[in-house]
Specification:
By secondary structure, this protein is an alpha+beta fold. The protein has a domain of 173 residues: 2-Layer Sandwich (Heat Shock Protein 90), CATH 3.30.565.10. Helix content is 66%, strand content 12%. The protein has nine helices and seven strands, in the order H-H-H-E-H-H-E-E-H-H-E-E-H-H-E-E. Helix 1 packs antiparallel against helix 3 and helix 3 packs across helix 4. It starts with 5 loop residues before the first helix and ends with a strand.
């Protein structure tokens, strides 16, 4: 240091000052760049947050839209199935009404002529007896023919045949009346209706399913009908509800039959109890109870859901009870409840207002 001259020291100081200025400039530039980077980071963070918020909003909107589309699709499916079911019931009504009409004409002819047949046969027998009285000793040919024909037996059996024909005719007449009652094509309007007629006509259509089949004993139907007045309702639609519930009751009993031995089935045959009554002077109550397999609680809770079914593919659409629920609740402002326990059977309770 002592060897340096004053000029050299002065030059060294200048160099240090210059170097210091350069460092200061670099420091200032670095601070500026740091601030710029900090500002840029804040801007980018804000942009990223906006993008994230936008994506979240879009995702939420997409989920909402997807849910709306799914609900719309389910509604369209339900409406389509309802239309199909309604069309099937309408077609069934037309078919039933057509069959009833075609049967009605010839059975009216038979039914109307049976009384005349009684009179004509009685007149012929009276005439024959009169001949026997006036001519007690007929020709040998007549005697031989009378002996071969067993006249007394023929006369007795002839009236039994006529009685059988009349009984069959009455039965067919009642069936035709039941078919016409069930179809209700002339009663699509809201009008006063006898609910017992609808129940009886539905049971008549299901009669073939109540009879003995193979190892399955017949299913007994017990009617505990109360004194119901005429109820304002859509008769044809209520018949559809009765059909769905009664058909399901028969299915449940047959399913129990299939899981038991023939002896167990004979000891515990199927039974459906239909009871009607007035509740609180405001409601007409129809209770339909079966002793079928019953349902677990998780199934019972879903019984009125559209497209829900426990039946195999091809045996049920899952819309029968959903449509029944809509008919009772929405169309008639009534109530439809289901109570069931596994192995103990099921009870459906329908309540329709006596007045709307």
């Amino acid at each position: 240091m002592d060897n340096l001259s004053f000029e050299q020291l002065q030059q060294r100081v200048k160099d240090l000052e210059k170097h210091n200025r350069l460092l200061q400039k670099k420091l200032d530039r670095s601070e500026f760049n740091r601030v710029e980077l900090e500002n840029s980071y804040e801007i980018q963070s804000k942009l990223v947050n906006r993008v994230i918020q936008g994506l979240e909003k879009s995702r939420a909107e997409a989920e909402t839209r997807s849910q709306e589309l799914q609900e719309a699709f389910n509604n369209l499916q339900m409406i389509q199935t309802k239309l199909v079911e309604s069309e099937k019931m309408s077609a069934l009504g037309v078919l039933v009404a057509g069959i009833a009409h075609e049967i009605n004409n010839p059975i009216n002819f038979i039914h109307g002529n049976i009384d005349y047949a009684y009179i004509y046969v009685q007149n012929l027998i009276d005439l024959l007896h009169l001949y026997q009285k006036i001519y007690p000793e007929p020709d040998t040919q007549i005697t031989s023919l009378l002996s071969k024909s067993e006249l007394d037996f023929v006369i007795k059996d002839l009236f039994q045949l006529l009685n059988s024909i009349k009984t069959g005719s009455d039965r067919i007449t009642n069936i035709v009346l039941g078919l016409r009652t069930f179809s209700r094509l002339d009663e699509a309007e809201y009008k006063q209706t006898n609910l017992h007629d609808g129940l009886d006509s539905t049971l008549m259509l299901l009669q073939h399913r109540l009879k003995t089949k193979g190892n399955f004993p017949p299913i007994t139907v017990i009617k505990n009908y109360g004194n119901l007045p005429q109820i304002p309702c859509f008769a044809g639609q209520l018949n559809q509800v009765f059909m769905n519930i009664l058909a399901n009751a028969i299915d449940a009993i047959e399913e129990r039959y299939s899981q038991q031995t023939p002896k167990e089935n004979q000891n515990y045959p199927g039974c459906i109890i239909i009871s009607t009554s007035i509740v609180d002077l405001q409601w007409a109550k129809i209770a339909i109870v079966d002793n079928g397999l019953g349902m677990p609680e998780q199934v019972r809770q879903k019984i009125f859901n559209p497209f829900f079914t426990t039946k195999p593919v091809g045996k049920g659409t899952g819309m029968g009870m959903a449509i029944s629920y809509q008919i009772i609740i929405e169309k008639h402002r009534g109530r439809l409840d289901c109570f069931s326990k596994i192995t103990e059977g099921t009870e459906f309770i329908i309540q329709i207002p006596l007045k709307q």
